[in-house]
Design goal:
By secondary structure, the protein is mostly helical. The chain is built from 13 helices and no strands. It has helices at 2-27, 57-61, 75-97, 109-113, 119-145, 150-166, 175-178, 219-248, 255-268, 270-279, 281-295, 303-328, 331-356.
């Protein structure tokens, strides 16, 4: 029974966070302060009272209108609050209740069944909830005005780097638990059956770790993993944007998308970011079709697709990881695949350019 109360509490907290996210979504693209002035109606400029600013409830009670002048508020405010509440509740259910990442349980099965979860699980959920909130802001800003505020991505990158100092891979595992060295192979890091444990940072920078980072679990390992993730995210998207732009003869992708991936890389490391880019192609097709249908324009925001791909990859890493482990820890293969993919991207976009002519 306690579990249901936890989920309800997390939903309420998420809705309250969503109310603040609405402020960020409205003001940051206009370079306005998040703290001043207080929330007010855009029509009559009257301050919205505290009892009229309750997440979800106030919008329903006032039927989406200002109490003073009756001006209608955008339904987006209600949608963001509801989506953030549901997102927090869903993330909590998967990461804490279900323990989708299979993090170690220090309290015992009985305590977890009763709703007394380990503090490590709570910290992991909170860390990912911050990433979820940041992705919500950049996605909505990209949908609204085709712009991803750099204030959000730089703040998110700083938070990811800070978290990497305290939650370095393999936290919450111990280094001895993270890699089964008893596998009778020359390099167990390149074998899916090795069972590389995923921590809050899904994987370390490289494997086996160099001597100055070994055996893991220290701030050097965490910081190096976060920096590598941020660099991989931004350079991957910048390279693809450059090649696609050259192939199409026009700008194909905004640099805000590269900043988004830089931020996510500081939270997750470089391997999930690389895989998430390819995963995001699926929601990209869906968002692209909806955008072309509803907006009747040629410009398609890619930020929401990247956000969905990142969250899906993060939550599915337990299943994705074993399949990509032989590739992502094989330096020779990576050196061959990287330029091959870049050449393929350029040729594909160039052929698309010819087809459009």
């Amino acid at each position: 029974m306690l579990v249901y109360w936890w989920i309800l509490l997390v939903f309420v907290i998420g809705a309250a966070v969503g109310s603040f996210l609405n402020v960020a979504i409205s003001r940051l693209p206009l370079e306005k302060s998040l703290l001043w002035p207080s929330s007010r109606c855009g029509n009559c400029l009257q301050t919205i009272r505290c009892y009229d600013n309750l997440p979800l409830l106030s919008y329903l009670r006032l039927r989406g209108r200002c109490r003073n002048c009756g001006a209608r508020f955008s339904i987006r405010y209600f949608i963001v609050e509801l989506a953030t509440g549901l997102g927090f509740a869903g993330l909590f259910y998967l990461e804490v209740v279900v323990n989708i990442h299979e993090w170690p349980n220090q309290r015992g099965a009985w305590a977890v069944q009763q709703g007394f979860f380990p503090i490590e699980w709570w910290l992991g959920f909170g860390y990912h909830a911050i990433l979820f909130s940041l992705l919500m802001v950049v996605s909505m800003c990209d949908l609204d005005c085709f712009e991803i505020p750099i204030q959000v991505t730089l703040t998110g990158a700083a938070l990811g780097l800070l978290g990497s100092l305290f939650f370095a891979w393999p936290w919450p595992w111990t280094p001895a638990q993270a890699v089964p060295f008893n596998v009778n192979m020359l390099n167990p890091w390149q074998v899916p059956q090795a069972g590389l444990k995923a921590g809050l940072q899904p994987w370390p920078l490289w494997g086996p770790l160099p001597q100055w980072l070994a055996p893991g679990g220290n701030w050097q390992t965490g910081l190096a993993t976060a920096i590598a993730g941020g660099l991989a995210g931004t350079f991957l998207l910048r390279a693809i944007a450059f090649l696609a732009g050259k192939g199409l003869g026009k700008e194909a992708m905004g640099l805000g998308d590269a900043d988004l991936m830089m931020m996510a890389g500081c939270f997750l490391g470089w391997q999930p970011v690389v895989i998430a880019f390819f995963v995001s192609a699926v929601p990209g097709l869906v968002f692209g079709a909806l955008s072309l249908t509803l907006r009747k324009g040629s410009e398609i925001p890619f930020g929401p697709s990247l956000a969905v791909g990142l969250l899906g990859t993060m939550l599915s890493w337990r299943w994705i990881g074993p399949y990509v482990q032989p590739i992502l820890f094989w330096d020779t293969l990576l050196l061959i695949l990287a330029p091959a993919c870049m050449i393929f991207m350029f040729v594909l976009t160039f052929l698309l350019r010819l087809a459009q002519r």
